Amino acid sequence: MVSQLARVEVPSTIWRKHRLGELSAADATLLAAAFEADYAGTTAGLGYAVVLVTQAIVEVAARYIPVHRLRAFDALQLASATAAMSAVPECRTFAASDRSLRSAAPAEGFLLFPAETAESG
User: Fold this and answer.
1) Which of 17, 39, 52, 83 is the most exposed place for a label (fewest CB within 10 A)?
2) Closest to 2 (Cα-Cα) out of 46, 59, 65, 56
3) Strand, helix or coil for residue 95
4) Same-domain pairing of 36 and 87
5) Do 26 and 62 reside in the same domain of the chain?
6) Domain of residue 22, residue span
7) Residue 90 domain-assigned?
8) What is the pLDDT of residue 44?
9) 8 A C-beta contact, residue 75 and residue 65
């Protein structure tokens, strides 16, 4: 499951990495297209279940900001994941590269992907 916000945040992150010189234009184009296909559910029957941002999610996100010191969209991502976990308790794995989100997610009951290792932590 992904938050509706991923539709904007994932391509934004991909293209930011291109601007920083971490990805070639060809790789960024490929990754963005692959994400868009997955998001739309056009990849061989695969796709994401999208968690729509509701008023309830906005309220939870607002509470997460001072507790976890998150930026607005990061708090909304975490609140969306919390809503998904409430609906599907097995949905406990949280993937993010942002350090603040990776710090906050376990405090809200999530397992991290990729898992923390001695080298990455």
Assistant:
1) 52
2) 46
3) strand
4) no
5) no
6) 2-40
7) yes
8) 66
9) yes
Q: What angle do CA 56, 59, 62 make, to 5 degrees?
A: 150
The mean pLDDT value for 84-109 works out to: 94
Q: Would you say residue 48 lies in a domain?
A: no
Task: Encode pLDDT of 35-60 as tens digits.
Answer: 999 888 876 666 788 899 999 999 99
- Which own/partner pairs from 75-81 qualify as long-range (CB within 8 Å, at least 24 positions apart)? 76/3, 76/5, 77/3, 77/5, 77/6, 77/9, 77/101, 78/104, 78/105, 78/108, 80/2, 80/3, 80/4, 80/5, 80/51, 80/53, 81/1, 81/3, 81/51, 81/105, 81/108, 81/110
pLDDT at 13 over 80: yes
In a domain, 118, yes or no: no
Residue 102 lies in a domain: yes
For tokens 């609140």, the residue is 79
pLDDT band (50, 70, 90) for residue 121: very low
Q: What angle do CA 14, 10, 17 make, to 5 degrees?
A: 20
N residues, the chain: 121
Alpha-carbon distance 3 to 13, whole Å? Answer: 15
